[in-house]
Design a protein that fits this description.
The structure is a single chain. The chain is mainly α and 724 residues long. The strands form 2 sheets. Strands 1-4 form a two-stranded antiparallel ribbon. A two-stranded antiparallel sheet has the order 2-3. Strand 2 and strand 3 form a beta hairpin. The longest helix is centred in the middle third of the chain and has 38 residues.
Amino acid sequence: MELEKFYYDNKIVRNFAYATIIWGFVGMLVGLIVAIQLIWPFFNFELPYTTFGRIRPLHTNAVIFAFVGNGIFMGLYYSLQRLCKARMFSDLLSNINFWGWQLIIVSAAVTLPLGITTGKEYAELEWFIDIAITLLWVVFGINMMGTIIKRREKHLYVAIWFYIATFVTVAVLHIVNSFELPVSFIKSYSMYAGVQDALVQWWYGHNAVAFFLTTPYLGLMYYFVPKAANRPVYSYRLSIIHFWALIFLYIWAGPHHLLYTALPDWAQSLGTVFSVMLIAPSWGGMINGLLTLRGAWDKVRESIVLKFMVVAVTAYGMSTFEGPMLSLKNVNAISHFTDWTIAHVHIGALGWNGFLTFGMLYWLLPKIFRTELYSKKLAGFHFWIGTIGILFYAIPMYWAGFTQSLMWKEFTDDGFLKYPNFLETVTQIVPMYRLRVIGGSLYLIGVIVMMFNLFKTAAQGKLLANEEAEAPSLVQQGAIHNPGEHWHRRLERKPVMMLVVSLIVILIGGIIEMVPTFMIKSNIPTISSVKPYTPLELQGRDIYIREGCYACHSQMIRTLQDDVDRYGHYSLAVESKYDHPMLWGSKRTGPDLARVGGKYSDAWQVAHLTNPRSVVPQSVMPKYGWLNTTELQTTYLGEHLKAQRDVGVPYTDAMIANAPADAVAQASPDADTQGLVKRYGPATQVRLFDGDKRTVSEMDALVAYLQVLGKLSKAAQAPEPAGK
């Protein structure tokens, strides 16, 4: 049989490896800064671009899409060529994929600190970057599928199944969640609102974890763990069950992030049921990975690569046990909105994604540079300091989460909240936040040591940019059907069919959950008493989103008794029907704000935003004093209202035409308010919010928004029982 000669492209692997290392350092450094800001608010620096609310999404995007994203491409471009016995389909597309991805990351690094954000969890990048991501993902897909189609290996190895499912599912998730209506180049409004937006966001958010942080890394696990151990995967049949069960079940699980909320109960229950079932395929994958090492534990003791990978797979098992547990209503009532969730997420991020990436880097770079690792001792130091760092990070966060929840839920013998002041829980967990900073610092030190070690490794070797290989073509091998072969073997010879079947499998859950929520009228509450925001309030909401306030404050009072007693009547679906996007939140570093309107005076709100510690000495909130001196831009307010009308908010032509004047009138008692009251009703509060008669400031708009929260509808004002 004649062998065809070809060359693997190691240069693209090298490029993604360098990007993974550099962006990993940047993302984790920003994460450490964010953690420090929650202990010492001084480190917000009283600058708009460095506050917690603006750089927290920079941290999450840098770690998820820059560090892990480049890690995915690094491992995939290396393994796919060898599994297919073919060079990547197009060197040009490979380079477009690399440089385009770095450009998107740089765009995120510029826009997020500038406050250019959609306010959607894990999808904060604005519409023009979303379009770029879509186009680049298509480039990646063409390059990947082209390589698979021109392969010299008949059957698709299990890793490739996961790569295909990742490509098709991430595409669907990104497109559906990114439906938004642009107002300008830097501003858009989500096409969805309230309950529907919450369902779409967490269908996306949970499955971004599933299909960006999990399935591609499972594919990488199936390639690199056997390679590093020089052993076959434990069970082919288990890998089939693991793959198909995982991608089918995962897509249903998003609603478990919305338990006890205004989401319909049937959707909450679906999310819970499928989340619990997820433990079976997830642990099937973990078992397949760990048992691949059976009989090779001597190698694990000797190999720093396998040490990292064993901890990574173990962390995956821990996270995928904890996830289904957190979806149980009784457990979720304790964990949700607390630091328990932060601990859970970081076991996955630091342990699973981080350590598997480090293991791949230590294995890959010496191979493509044709040299030995510069220092095994430094790599061993990295392993142990990284492991200790994870423990110092996660354990205090678990403790903080339990402390928060127990304090929130504790009642006196007389039936009153024992800790009605939210700040009492904040002061209790600051020591745990200090320990988290220590853990994050140790983990980052390990990354710095790795950077030095790997760059010295590259310097002492020479990149084999084009690695020679040879294999017979598919035509020479023959593709005759074997009647006795396993049915899945036949599917593995058809990559396009594998893609189509994967698409159908992942669409089932999304369609069944979303179609009723969008189409059945009983799931879309309508009530005439809900009023839209005035132009000033809408601008205040946009500023609230820009400053990332939603990252610390929820606007969703759950049906739990302690929530109701502390914040007021539980939130109803109808109350957020005009919220594009919804701001229900996922973490309470500060109290819920769903009904904060009128609870404090305007002067208190201004003082609190200007210098939080002047009214709440132990607050960890950043200062927003610059809002007092920043003039509110009202010129294009009419365009904002028009866009809101296009996505379903009932603004009239008169409201749109008079938007700039109405915004000024609401904040200026000396202005003519007759038109404002006529358009928005007599309940519209007209006052001087920040005390400055010379100009309408951004502070005026933000306070106007805060003071109307919970007051746009009378639906929740009648007394009702707390439980549903």
